[in-house]
Specification:
The structure holds two protein chains of two kinds. By secondary structure, chain A is α+β, with helices and mostly antiparallel strands. Chain A is 37% helix and 20% strand. In chain A, the strands form five sheets. Chain A has a seven-stranded antiparallel beta sheet with strand order 15-12-14-13-18-19-17, sandwiched between helices. In chain A, strands 5-6-10-8-9 form a five-stranded antiparallel beta sheet. Chain A has a four-stranded mixed beta sheet with strand order 1-2-4-3. In chain A, helix 9 packs across helix 11. Chain A is globular and about 70 Å long. Chain B is mainly alpha-helical. Chain B has one domain: Alpha-helical ferredoxin (Fumarate Reductase Iron-sulfur Protein, Chain B, domain 2, Orthogonal Bundle), CATH 1.10.1060.10. Chain B is 58% helix and 0% strand. Chain B has six helices and no strands. In chain B, helix 1 packs across helix 3 and helix 3 packs parallel to helix 6. The two termini of chain B are 16 Å apart. Classes of the chains: A alpha+beta, B mainly alpha. At the A-B interface, helix 12 of A face helix 3 and helix 4 of B. The structure holds flavin-adenine dinucleotide and iron/sulfur cluster (2 copies). The site of flavin-adenine dinucleotide has 34 residues of chain A, from strand 3, helix 5 and strand 10.
């Protein structure tokens, strides 16, 4: 790519790679989607980002920001003629203030590394996608990510105070938006417009994030219910008990069995899985543990495991953390030697409609003859049903696509949404349109496209995503 | 390369291995981490380059990545076999 060669003069040769084999590493997502790009650039500062964008603007080159490329929606994939901007070298934690409850970070800091640093202060950043070890601040902000603790802490939307961004204009304008305070009325809320914008509006180079104390103590309970109705009754009772659990996770029986086989988790799977974590004072540990255990058993759980020590709790999480690898592991077993595509839904429904949603998804999967895994962050009504199939199997592909659309429809009909936390990317553009159509809000799409044009008049920033 | 390729094929690209890899950050790009190395191995029979060889020869074979990999991919073993393949290509 000739332009990339010229970019070496602007930025320094060590910050640009054009070797197609290395560029290829930045052109694939865990979903199985892949594409191509002309080069990867590695900015080390906001100034570098500004230079790249200004260069791209002048030469009409498309740019594709990336953190760790763990998006599951196609949002971080480049296109043939473009340049990937990888934020991996912008990985400094700039400052921590316990008094202000803030941390200032560069966009390439991984959430896992951030939490290691914050633990020194007894604090944490509470958004914990399943990919927390590897996901970057910039990727999580732009993905609008959530995670296991979503029911308690929400998504990135609730935890970003301020941003330093670079705009895709002629001079690569550097801009600070938002505040260092929780209360902030700075006109229209540009921070929250950029959060979840999937790299289509601005390049995030630094962020001021809110932080929160680590819980004093946590009780974890893992239970297996032969009947879905019983599991839901236990879930509902927890939700109605005036406690706000940190985590409520679900896997249906088939999925839990796959995860067990893939991970050798130290538990016996005997039905559908409900995993609950509730925080409390140290003095209340025994009471909360007994309460959770009794509640699960009263609702006919076959097996109940509880833990109060962090290392014991972590063991109870093994099964849940193996959800995605298990899905791929069994795809590989079923279709040996084939390249797989994994369609991972990301719907959310109001928690009161969860049981209906799960039952309907199982019906639709059966109708299409698909082996589907169902799991999710049910504390906030977020479900991740998924199906894996060989990329070259057109019959399976068309079944999976039909299934994908029907599952999304179920979510919207139950008052939910087609994407809770993974974003729209390229995979869910049609579903977003369908959701807005159903709400009678097609105009919202026009507004979104207008906003995109204001930020990115030449359409060079992560084009083809979201709208 | 049979073993290396069959290990590499199991990779789900989750990247969970990257934070523990001691060579990733000093290397300056993803090829210097386990996720990158296994992907490069899949391409190796088709083509190679100086950067690819550097990426494979800077692996410390420490096995830290395998400890945290959900698929328990033997990256060090795969890299060893890939190096042998590169050597045999050089000498032929
Ligand atoms: C096993 C597994 C489990 C997962 N679990 C969850 C989960 O529980 N919850 C959840 O929400 N997600 C989950 N994900 C999806 C994904 O990991 C998260 O959304 C994560 O936050 C993305 O981080 P990343 O650094 O990989 O971002 P990337 O994939 O690199 O990027 C995500 C988006 O942000 C943009 N972007 C990245 N950096 C910047 C920047 N500096 N400026 C502007 N735009 C930028 C990209 O263009 C892209 O649109 C999971 C993924 C995997 C593989
Ligand atoms: S074995 Fe190689 S790739 Fe794996 S962690 Fe060690 S240095 Fe990194
Ligand atoms: S952790 Fe394992 S499966 Fe995930 S990217 Fe690394 S090698 Fe691949």
């Amino acid at each position: 790519m000739r332009a990339a060669e010229r970019l070496k003069d602007v930025l320094g040769a060590d910050k640009v790679i054009t070797d197609p084999l290395i560029v290829n590493l930045y052109s694939r997502e865990p979903s199985g989607l892949s594409s191509r790009a002309g080069a990867v650039v590695f900015p080390e500062s906001s100034k570098d980002v500004s230079k790249i964008v200004s260069f791209a603007y002048k030469h009409n080159i498309k740019v594709f920001p990336q953190g760790s490329t763990t998006s599951l929606s196609g949002s971080s994939l480049p296109a043939e003629e473009g340049i990937v901007i990888s934020f991996e070298r912008m990985n400094r934690i700039l400052s921590v203030s316990v008094v202000d409850s803030t941390v200032d970070v560069e966009a390439g800091v991984r959430l896992g590394d951030l939490n290691v640093e914050l633990a020194r202060y007894g604090y944490m950043f509470p958004i914990d996608p399943g990919s927390v070890a590897v996901a970057t601040v910039g990727g999580a902000i732009n993905g609008g990510s959530g995670g296991l603790r979503g029911a308690r802490y929400g998504t990135m939307t609730n935890w970003v105070l301020g941003l330093k961004v670079v705009l895709p204009d002629e001079s690569g304008t550097e801009l600070r938006v938002g505040c260092r305070t929780t209360k902030c009325r700075q006109g229209y809320d540009l921070v929250r417009l950029i959060v979840g914008s999937e790299g289509t509006l601005a390049l995030v180079t630094e962020a001021t994030l809110k932080i929160t104390p680590m819980p004093e103590a946590v009780v974890t309970a893992l239970a297996f219910f032969p009947e879905l109705e019983d599991l839901y009754a236990a879930y509902k009772e927890i939700k109605e008990s005036r406690v706000q659990p940190l985590i409520l996770e679900f896997m249906d029986e088939e999925t839990a069995r796959l995860a067990k086989e893939a991970s050798a988790a130290p538990v016996e799977v005997e039905g559908h899985m409900l995993l609950a974590a509730v925080d409390c004072n140290r003095e209340a540990l025994d009471r909360v543990e007994a309460w959770l255990s009794e509640l699960m058993r009263r609702h006919n759980a076959k097996r109940v495991y509880t833990a109060v020590k962090p290392e014991e709790s972590e063991k109870l999480f093994t099964l849940r953390r193996s959800l995605f690898p298990a899905q791929v592991f069994f795809g590989n077993k079923r279709y040996p030697g084939k390249r797989l595509m994994v369609i991972l839904e990301d719907i959310a429904v109001p928690p009161s409609r969860l049981l209906e949603a799960i039952k309907k998804i199982r019906e639709v999967s059966e109708k299409h003859g698909l082996q589907v895994s169902i799991g999710g962050h049910v504390g906030d009504g977020n479900l991740h049903p998924s199906v894996a199939f060989p990329l070259d199997d057109e019959v399976m592909k068309s079944k999976a696509v039909a299934w994908h659309e029907e599952v999304a429809k179920i979510a919207v009909e139950l008052g939910g949404t087609v994407s809770a936390e993974h974003g729209i990317g390229t995979l869910k553009k049609g579903l977003l349109e369908a959701e807005l159509e159903k709400l009678g809000s097609r105009k919202a799409l026009e507004l979104m496209r207008g906003i995109k044009r204001v930020f990115d008049p030449k359409g060079i920033l992560n084009p083809g995503k979201v709208v | 390369m049979k073993y290396a390729v069959s290990e590499a094929r199991r990779c789900v690209l989750c990247g969970f291995c990257e934070p523990v890899c001691p060579t990733l950050y000093p290397g300056g790009h993803r090829g210097h981490g386990p996720r990158g190395r296994v992907q490069l191995i899949l391409l190796l029979e088709g083509s190679s380059s100086r950067l690819v060889e550097e990426a494979l020869y800077t692996c410390l074979l420490c096995g830290a990545c395998t400890q945290v990999c959900p698929a328990k991919i033997d990256v060090a073993g795969a890299v060893r076999e890939a190096r042998a393949f590169l050597r045999s290509k050089l000498s032929s």
